[in-house]
Task: inverse folding
């Protein structure tokens, strides 16, 4: 089968942010081809976006329903192989469900859905259909995140005792949603975002990262959830105490009112023998700390890294890779798995690695529990 | 009065760590002269330490009680002007009380006392006698900590909304107290340290730093206090949610099992207009963040800093100052205030700046509240 | 003209490094489509690479000459619009010349050619044909490099007085060319690389970066050029004193035996009012220094940056962009200029920005002069 | 002999900068007592400084000659043991010569003298008298500088191939000497500073650091020496190519017009097996780089450091030490050696470590050679 995997996009028209990220991520490795899209619920807008992207007019649709129907009618190899859903949270469930029910694999932006029921329904559908479903918790796509995961899995730092995961941003320090800013508007609107603001938008990334790297599950949480900008409808800051299933303790915080912070996702993990520290804004370095020995700067491309790490880096040491490359890792792995399905082949284990619908359900549960704990004035709640 | 201020030391004999720190800090600026000491409760050991320090034999005592009595008998100007208490926590109260009752000013290591009752008794005595009392919460002695405090006081970053203060260390990642290590032994021994381990030893520094810089008071806390090394008798890790009296939210954590961390006290403060970040291990930089403007690296010695900052730095930009210089700032200010008392003069306001007995009482209350909240399984407790 | 710009690639078959970089860079923005290639001078190998890339068999050629001839025979809109040359230095001239002579635009890897004569011949051809020619001095594609350039152009740091540009690598610290390593082999082989090793491979990047950012020309150089690994045939380390045409002084060094360095291209520029510092390995930050004011951390996506900067960044602040994105900027700008040619339109000035054949000639001259000065035992030589 | 070593100071009165640095450095470890001084050639000013320092009036002198004469008349144990000379360059030779001729050990600020003849005369006198002479090239006092030296001495990074030593400052970016600034005035005045400006003031520190750490000697230099601020009488910027006696190549630069730089002394050294990097402004870290292994952050107080390193640090890991502590290491070692002389004892080898009069002669030669090479328009000159 000598062809690229074919993608149809839902959402991501002119003016959107994340749609273009998905397109660049999908394009980077030359494995995926954008063949169609329903870029906007406004057919005219959708058309304009299709032109921008040099798509055949006949493959630019006015709604996701139209796209799924019409594409299904095309022969395999011509029709899209999967959909990529890049709409706001409240428009994840509809297209995902319809795509799955019509035999299309799915890539979906996070959080998985508007509420827990939707999320669980999607998980059920994925299990039922056997279709592939990737959730773009893109931060786990970074090579040094893989390295950290493997070092813990191989007991290099000993049993994990403490985890600090943080995600400070500052862009909602003012009431930006009262201006024209589209990104701020839907993210702070309960009818589009769901029950959580910052905790849903970025808190779930932090939760996902911590569980992915440590291989542990958060067992209980105790949260202080706040809205610090007057008149905002959802939380913009949350501080959470964590207990993990192995007894480790932790802190998770997410904030969108940390003035002057950009996109400061970071994690520190301490085991009995050593510690790991990683910062998303300098993603090619993993700081490895030891009891009474000098710390080490693990770097992509330097020395003996795990095969899982090497499989997710493209260029030599000192040639920085960033956000788009990490995002592209998810698309590349997903495309390899789709291709394997189409060709009835196996994929090497290091590439069978992207966040799934189950990660999405877990993220939705996390959202529910922190909001519940926050309302209960910080009591411990089991996950 | 052309003479140095005269110091007598209690504790700090051979093998001690903090005693020598106090001596270096006191010596640095040429304002203070060590004239006598009771360096150990073992008279022979005390004598040996006196020899190391080139003290007159007659001024080296076998107990603090002996020292206070005999020094009191000497004429003013010959006798010590103040005592410096550098013993473990359970031996703070005795000498401090006796010194105050006999008319000596006091410098005391932190935490102030073994328990809250002792702490409050010392505060009462200080108020009653009008004597000066400095508590060596030395981290507030750093120039860029002064700068941060003044920037907030002058509303440069707007109303404070969030505070993250952290103090990770790794040196107690193993059961070091089972070896011969003296520092580990008393710090993990409830009969010497009091009801708290890490929270008392370093958590109080974090609390003090946060309140000093922000000018806010912690109003309520919700804590998860743990002992992660098997068989240890006191806490070695604590994670605390904070609410401040102006409504700001926060996190404080202190840990001595964060493997590979050295002495990582750090604070981040976010206001409505900007943020501040300071790391004790790189103390000459204050990172100042702004909403949608480039962040700035404030540095000791560069540009227009507050007089309070300038008064606490000794050398030009790019000549790093460290822990001992910050510690020395407390001694220098204290010595200036003692001199002013002796000479009936005024001290410039920028030098009337050292932690007091009241900071010590506050620290003890903090210890009590976090331990109480930890035992109550993380419920909000008012300070 | 609703279609992507069509690229044919010369070189870059299986096992090559830079070919894949060019392909990812070209693909990222969805403006360019790879339609054909002569990936190897071995037709069978070329075919295999074509399969990897999902190309139509009929468009995979066994030689660049075949490709240029056959593509020329295809109608416009179907045939390639430009060639991308990613072969070793000694195979730049042949395909570039033939492409230009047959009406194809060219992207070529650096250095421009094997020797100065070839370089000047290509410059002549470009001028004669009016075709577009981009040289992938990719490091000038970084957004913060644009910002630095514009700040100097707008006199923000005053007249430039001093420039330090450095490019340390460590990968040739051992005699790697004696192993099977292909990259090391051709780069240290005078018959493939030309008269210079490190100075050609990376020294020219440093020269190009310094002149691009400052807007100055290097007027004279005084060089110490060495081969520090026994038996190596070309230089692996060079230290060069610089004088610029405005009187500024400088240092340029390039090294491939700086053990432990990755790809440490960095530049520091000092003017009468301030300084700039940029590190390729942390490319999203530009450190801006001032006389007696705090330094500032300019960051992609934060605050008011020049339009030239903004035009070369794709994602918000704190989402790191890297080497491939900078490389892609060159391809994206080149593609926009090719499209404008095809459509007889104008391109906005901020996008008319990629290194040209003239930069390539200048780089070749630089190589000749530093080698000449090195042989003359460091005497000043005019550029 | 249970007493402190007694110091008399020459220079360093009110308004001076370096005098107070010397006093703090001497005081820090409680080994040295300031007993007398000729702080100014103006007797009244000297007296005021003596008062500031709580000195006995009878020991505050109006000239260095008076001090040396009168102190010599006092009995040993009461009189000063050594002089500390902290005057501008042109007033080093006179007091140093007289002190040596009268049996006093000497600490002298750098550079050693006003010209090479004076320097060689002092060296002759030191050899003749057998007195101790320390030159305060203070930057070699840092513990991680010792660590770097020992790592090279023990072949940890293999044979040294390349050295980059740099010392950028920005404080003379404007013509500060035209204002009242005392520090700028004498440093740019050939009648006080000697034949060199920046190269003498800070270039010699760079030279000393490079030779101290590597254990190599600079064999030849090729220099570009400039005055970039109009009307300045001495050099304010110098760039120098280096060749070392083992064949290693290098670059040294010193600049006082690097706008926005503070005191950026830094060194990078590359051997066959690895590299070392140290920055004076973050002095407690030594970055250790390896061929194809993660780099390591050696830190004062962490892990197994050389005894030479440990002997020059006073406080545990993570408690930053700075400029004054490094400076104090020179005084402490010098005092230990003086004490050993007085007591006819041996000093442990790790403490027999301070810059000597011979380092000073070497520094003067370096100044002469770089100025000569600069005037010869960058030709190679043997050291």
Result:
């Amino acid at each position: 089968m000598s062809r690229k995997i074919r993608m149809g996009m839902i959402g991501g028209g002119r003016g959107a942010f994340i749609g273009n990220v998905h397109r660049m991520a999908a394009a980077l490795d030359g494995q995926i081809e954008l063949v169609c899209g329903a870029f906007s619920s406004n057919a005219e807008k959708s058309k304009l976006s299709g032109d921008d992207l040099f798509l055949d007019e006949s493959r630019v649709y006015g709604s996701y329903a139209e796209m799924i129907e019409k594409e299904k009618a095309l022969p395999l190899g011509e029709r899209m192989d999967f959909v990529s859903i890049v709409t706001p949270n409240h428009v994840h469930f509809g297209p995902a469900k319809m795509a799955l029910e019509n035999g299309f694999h799915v890539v979906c932006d996070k959080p998985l859905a508007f509420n827990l029921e939707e999320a669980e329904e999607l998980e059920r559908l994925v299990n039922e259909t056997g279709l592939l479903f990737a959730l773009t918790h893109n931060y786990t796509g970074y090579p040094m995140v893989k390295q950290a995961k493997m070092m813990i899995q191989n007991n290099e730092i000993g049993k994990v005792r403490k985890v600090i995961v943080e995600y400070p941003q500052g862009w909602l320090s003012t009431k930006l949603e009262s201006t024209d800013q589209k990104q701020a508007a839907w993210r702070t609107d309960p009818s589009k975002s769901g029950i959580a603001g910052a905790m849903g938008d970025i808190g779930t990334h932090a939760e996902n990262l911590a569980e992915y790297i440590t291989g542990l599950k958060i067992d209980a949480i105790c949260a202080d959830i706040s809205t610090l900008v007057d008149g905002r409808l959802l939380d913009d800051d949350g501080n959470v105490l964590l207990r993990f299933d192995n007894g480790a303790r932790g802190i998770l915080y997410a904030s969108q009112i940390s003035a002057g912070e950009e996109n400061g996702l970071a994690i520190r993990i301490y085991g009995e023998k050593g510690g790991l520290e990683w910062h998303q804004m300098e993603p090619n370095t993993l700081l490895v700390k030891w009891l009474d020995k000098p710390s080490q700067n693990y770097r992509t491309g330097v020395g003996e890294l795990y095969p899982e790490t090497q499989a997710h880096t493209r260029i030599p040491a000192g040639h920085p890779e960033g956000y788009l490359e990490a995002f592209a890792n998810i698309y590349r792995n997903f495309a390899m798995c789709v291709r394997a399905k189409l060709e009835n082949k196996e994929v090497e284990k290091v590439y069978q690695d992207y966040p799934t619908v189950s990660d999405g359900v877990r993220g939705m549960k996390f959202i529910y529990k922190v909001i519940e704990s926050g309302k209960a004035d910080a009591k411990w709640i089991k996950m």
Notes: The first strand of chain D starts at residue 5 and ends at 10. Chain D has twelve helices and 14 strands.
